[in-house]
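C-alpha cells incoming
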C-alpha cells in the first residue's frame, strides 16, 4: 500500500488539483455569466424606461452595447427595439435592415427570427411586390404558428393587391376566428372578411358584445361585474 502511495500519490494529487481548478473555473465562469446577464437585463430595462419617456437617444445608448455584445436572446431583443425606434423616426428602410439582420442570423432564436421577418415586411410593405410579401410570409401564415395572425393579415393584404379575393377572404376569416390572435387584429380581419363576403363569426352574440365593447357602447362583462 505504501508503494502504491509513493508510486501514484503525486499523479492522483495532480489530477485532484486540476479537477478542483477546473471546478473553480466553472464556478467563476457561471458567476460571471450570471452577473453579465443581470447587468444586460438592467441595461434593457433602462432602455425600455427611456423609450416610454420618448427619450430615444438615451434608449439607444443602452441598446447599442446589447446589440453588439449581448447573448443571442438579449441581442435580438435590443436590435428589435432599435428597429422599432427607427420606425418611430420614420426610417422604414433602416428598420427593415435591422429586422433582416435578425431574420438572417441562424444563431438567433427562431421566434425572434420569424417576428423580425414579419416586422421587416410590415415596415416596407408599401414598397414591396405583393408576391414577395407572400413568398416571405406564407410559411408563417399557417394556423398554429406563433405569429399566424400578423403574418396572415399581411399575406391577405398582398392577395388583395393581386386581386385574389378568393384567397384573401378565407385567410382573413381564419385570423378572425383565431382566439389566440390579438383582439384588435381579429376585429380588423373580421371586417375585411365580411367585406369580401366570407363569414368570420362563430358566435354571433359574443361577437356583437365585443363590437359594442370596442365601440364604447357598453362595458365589458368583467367591468360590469366589478362595478356591481
Amino acid at each position: 500500500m505504501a508503494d502504491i502511495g509513493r508510486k501514484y500519490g503525486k499523479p492522483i494529487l495532480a489530477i485532484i488539483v486540476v479537477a478542483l481548478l477546473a471546478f473553480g473555473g466553472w464556478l467563476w465562469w457561471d458567476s460571471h455569466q450570471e452577473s453579465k446577464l443581470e447587468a444586460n437585463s438592467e441595461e434593457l430595462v433602462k432602455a425600455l424606461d427611456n423609450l416610454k419617456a420618448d427619450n430615444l437617444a438615451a434608449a439607444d445608448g443602452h441598446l447599442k452595447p446589447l446589440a453588439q455584445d449581448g447573448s443571442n436572446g438579449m441581442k435580438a431583443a435590443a436590435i428589435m427595439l432599435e428597429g422599432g425606434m427607427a420606425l418611430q423616426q420614420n426610417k422604414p428602410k433602416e428598420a427593415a435592415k435591422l429586422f433582416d439582420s435578425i431574420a438572417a442570423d441562424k444563431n438567433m432564436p427562431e421566434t425572434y427570427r420569424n417576428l423580425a421577418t414579419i416586422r421587416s415586411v410590415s415596415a416596407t410593405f408599401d414598397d414591396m411586390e405583393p408576391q414577395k410579401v407572400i413568398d416571405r410570409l406564407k410559411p408563417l401564415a399557417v394556423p398554429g404558428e406563433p405569429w399566424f395572425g400578423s403574418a396572415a393579415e399581411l399575406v391577405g393584404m398582398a392577395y388583395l393587391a393581386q386581386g385574389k379575393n378568393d384567397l384573401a377572404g378565407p385567410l382573413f376569416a381564419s385570423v378572425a376566428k383565431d382566439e389566440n390572435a390579438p383582439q384588435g387584429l381579429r376585429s380588423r380581419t373580421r371586417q375585411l372578411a365580411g367585406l369580401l363576403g366570407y363569414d368570420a363569426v362563430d358566435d354571433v352574440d359574443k361577437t356583437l358584445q365585443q363590437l359594442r365593447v370596442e365601440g364604447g357602447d357598453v362595458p365589458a362583462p368583467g367591468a360590469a361585474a366589478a362595478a356591481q
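note: Residues 1-33, 217-228 have pLDDT under 50 and may be disordered.
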